[in-house]
Design a protein that fits this description.
alpha/beta, 16 helices, eleven-stranded mixed beta sheet, binds glutamine, Amidase signature (AS) enzymes
Length: 487
């Protein structure tokens, strides 16, 4: 459908003069106003600013000064990335009234590429969750079925792209938060290599794992956005010097990657329909002439335990800054300084965030640090080495399911954190190893809920991931199927 133009299709329409960026942005705003009441993917939308940016892009194009692939293309951001002068809430009560005084590096780079910085998207509070249900501002609903979660924590980013509210969004992924919602909502979601994209201006959850990445309805768009936002940033010492170049124009070559299928991932309980869709994707690659090898990642079953020690430890330290003093919610009942800290944090954070701060503080406390944090770091090394061994043995890419299930029902798992945590089993290993991972839409269940498979590549091989995804996209139609939204 028209409104579902991908970024590259919109670019052609802008180039031919079929539509202007301003007209397109107006249509998207209308669509959001009529349909997002139920979906709740947006926490905010600065219409005036978006229309102003779109007009400026149209003007540049009219003057023959277009800035390239993303000029005039609307891109929405998970609301944990700083946009100057706009609210930056991270889905939390504690930051409900905080406005960012500066732009994140990704925002600066997108602006420099001419993109229209569009909606601010809903998310699990501080990106902690797999269902968007921990957002203080209400859960996001899955456009495919409003009784289901869109996944999380970048649930708003996935739902907005799936619902045709924007062609591309950015999310963040610490343990699967781009890939799992992408798979639940039937779109692509790329978590680049750790360090590929600057984290400056991304509110930190677990700094050794966090990574920003794009979600879109076609592979080419992921490549163009990655090209625009990657690269060295003096403000993020973990950013990698090399920028991805070339964008979607680099994706046209013939590829026949050697694909590793880790046997342990297929021994884990999962929905029958997920298993059969993923097996069909493997068969497709074989038919294209790719060698498929069974491989082993023997320590991957330890990944969830290691992650929930490392991520909570880092979160407990990162979230210490939200103390009621400078920019956060401050309790009205506090009588002295200690009460300002305790009550502001007690009132401002939700249950899941508190649970993680407590867990992480415990894991780091003296006497327990070696037993938990240090041990988890050792497990992390083992997991990274498992991947390296396979890549050294000639495996180009690893293929797995993205999540063991399709989108689950709202309220179904939120009371049971352990079940929720275990759902991240397939996505967490790539974060622990710092590797790029991509979720590719590959079909739907009998209940019409999307299914995705995951591709994992060696460090900095995002373009190989995208090329392999394009090989799949060229022969399959899952990415073209739209949710039943009534128009
Ligand atoms: N679901 C995982 C968690 O709750 C991953 C979150 C993320 O990647 N931000 O921690």
């Amino acid at each position: 459908m028209e409104i579902y133009k991908t970024a590259s299709q919109l670019r052609s329409a802008l180039e031919s003069g079929e539509v202007s960026s301003e007209e397109w942005v107006k249509q998207l705003i209308q669509r959001i106003e009529s349909l997002d009441g139920e979906i709740n993917s947006h926490l905010g939308l600065d219409k005036e600013s978006a229309l102003g940016q779109a007009k400026a892009a149209d003007q540049r194009r009219a003057n023959g000064e277009s800035l390239g692939a993303l000029d005039g293309i609307p891109i929405s951001l998970k609301n944990n990335m700083a946009i100057k002068g706009q609210k930056l809430t991270c889905g939390s009560h504690i930051l409900e009234n905080f406005e960012s005084p500066y732009d994140a590096t990704v925002v600066e780079k997108l602006k420099a590429a001419g993109a229209v910085i569009f909606g601010r998207l809903n998310m699990d509070e501080f990106a902690m969750g797999s269902s968007n249900e921990t957002s203080y501002f209400g859960t996001t609903r899955n456009p495919w079925n409003l009784e289901r979660t869109p996944g999380g924590s970048s649930g708003g980013s996935a739902a907005a792209v799936a619902a045709g509210f924007c062609p591309v969004s950015l999310g963040s992924d610490t343990g699967g938060s781009i890939r799992q919602p992408a798979s639940f909502c039937g779109v692509y979601g790329l978590k680049p290599t750790y360090g590929r994209i600057s984290r400056y201006g991304l509110v930190a959850f677990a700094s050794s794992l966090d990574q920003i990445g794009p979600l879109a309805r076609e592979v080419d768009d992921l490549a163009d956005v990655l090209t625009a936002v990657s690269g060295l940033d003096p403000k993020d010492s973990s950013s990698y010097p090399e920028t991805v170049t070339g964008g979607s124009s680099e994706l046209n070559g013939e590829v026949k990657p050697v694909i590793g299928v880790p046997k342990e991932f297929f021994e884990y309980p999962m929905d029958e329909e997920v298993l059969s869709s993923v097996k069909a994707a493997i068969a497709y690659y074989e038919k294209q002439g790719c060698e498929v090898r069974e491989i082993s990642l023997p320590n991957s079953h330890l990944s969830v335990s290691a992650y929930y020690v490392i991520a909570t430890a880092e979160a407990s330290s990162n979230l210490a800054r939200f103390d009621g003093i400078r920019y956060t919610h401050r309790s009205k009942d506090a009588k002295d300084l200690m009460e300002v800290y305790f009550k502001s944090r007690g009132e401002g954070f939700g249950e899941e965030v508190k649970r993680r701060i407590i867990l992480g503080t415990f894991a780091l406390s003296s006497g327990y640090h070696d037993a938990y944090y240090l041990k988890a770091q050792k497990v992390r090394t083992l997991i990274r080495e498992d991947f390296s061994k396979n890549f050294e043995d000639g495996v180009d890419l690893i293929l797995t399911p993205t999540a063991p299930t399709t989108a689950f029902k709202i309220d179904e798992s939120i009371q049971d954190p352990l079940t929720m945590y275990l759902n991240d089993i397939f996505t967490i290993p790539a974060n622990l190893a710092g590797l790029p991972g991509l979720s590719v839409p590959c079909g739907a269940s009998s209940e019409n809920l999307p299914i995705g498979f995951q591709l994992i590549a060696p460090h900095f091989k995002e373009m190989s991931l995208l090329q392999a995804a394009k090989l799949y996209e060229n022969g399959n139609e899952a990415h073209l199927v739209r949710p039943p939204l009534g128009n």
